[in-house]
Amino acid sequence: MSCFKLVWLSPYFEVLYCFILTLILFIIFLFQKKTWYDRWAKTAVIKNSEYDIVREKKGITLLVVISLVIFGIRTFYFISMGSFNNPFIPKHSKNVIAAYVSFLEKQLDAKDYIFKLFEKNDIVILCEREHPEMTQYDFIFDLVSDERFVKNVGNVYTEIGSRTQQSNLDSLMNTDGLINEKLDIKLSQILQNYSDFPIWENTNYFDYYKKLYILNQQLPKEKRIRHVFTDLDFNWKEIKNNKEYTEKVKSNNASRDAMLADRIIKMYEQMLVSNQERKKCLVIMNYRHAFGPVNVPIGDTSCASYIMRKYPNQSANVLINTVNVSFGLSNPGSPILLPIQKSPINNGIWDNAFKAIGNKSLGFNFKDSPFGTDKFDLFFSPTGKLLKYQDVFTGYIFYKPLEEHYNSSGFKNIIANGFDEEILNRATIIDDNSFDLDINIKYVKEKVEKFRKQEITVNTKPYQKYSSVIDILFGTVLLSLGVALGLIFFLIRKKIAKV
Asked: What's the predicted TM-score (pTM) here?
């Protein structure tokens, strides 16, 4: 439990806070030659003039033993797992997870749960994991290609994808007989101009659209799946400098969620008055954009909140199993570059419960479940009040355990025909004369160099890399420093005692 009684403060923040506070108090001590508590309590410290070498030996021996144990554990982790980090998911006893396991044993398959939601709702919003994660799009395509989806839903709306590219996607999906090479080229051209980032390189989107095209080729035209882009109108050909980028993109960031929701609402209402049989849609939003209907303070209301408030009886939002991200941002553009700490939801209790039943793919409503009453720990900024998961999401689906998740970057023809230089040019336009120019340019250059060496890069451990920031930084590095300083002072005192 955070000593601040706020759900958003991570242990990393608290340790950092204590470290800064300790540093400030130490500086005060250097100037005043007295500790703050002695000054406030009007007490004094009388030092023992005799040096007790036996006690010093016991103290330094204990410190060395503790260090050897921790270093031994680190070595064990490295030999067994190839990482100095602790196991990513903490283990919990059967008693702790018993209520969760008992509940899960009665739940529906994840796909069946989504289709059950569609029986009562026209709009189901799925909260996407980290954008590059691959296995979630295996589930999404499995859902979209299901005959129940083809028959009764038929529409997919995504946060990512500029609506400027909608006509190009529609044209592609309605062009029959494209073979692999031509299909790859046309898809890469859409994705090269897909967003207001210099390049949207995530492999899962490319693979999903390719599979969707192949699926649609097997369906009658009136039954084909319609995929709709909802992100802002944006055309890189119209952006010549940072001023134009600021006016056409950055100026819309504050109202982006409202604009996403407006696009979805308009498309939905057009469906309602149209002659088409299928008038439901799956909406895929990432992270906070899918939060709702509670307005978690994030500077603007989430896209899902807009939709769910307008259609309270026709919409639902579902969280797909993922990790939470604690204090610290390492993305380019952040003025504070602190290590991200990724950790399992509810300290791994949920993941342990699913592991106990064989990591079955399941789905359920948060309400009237032990999961729903757990503290909402998915968002790293202040929520203003203690929220529960049932306050923010309708339901939850589990698909693949965390250790099977993986990220992938790049796709066929991603930098074909000199597009690598265009990516660098876009990065320069975005960051022209900005505070984070060097950070972003360096970051994008590293991306482009990877694409030049190989089109696709896979990361099989996207979470574990940052899973134990506290343990590595404070539990090992600072302990090593403590042992070194302790030994130095011990030897100095021992030498003085002999004199």
From this structure: 0.80
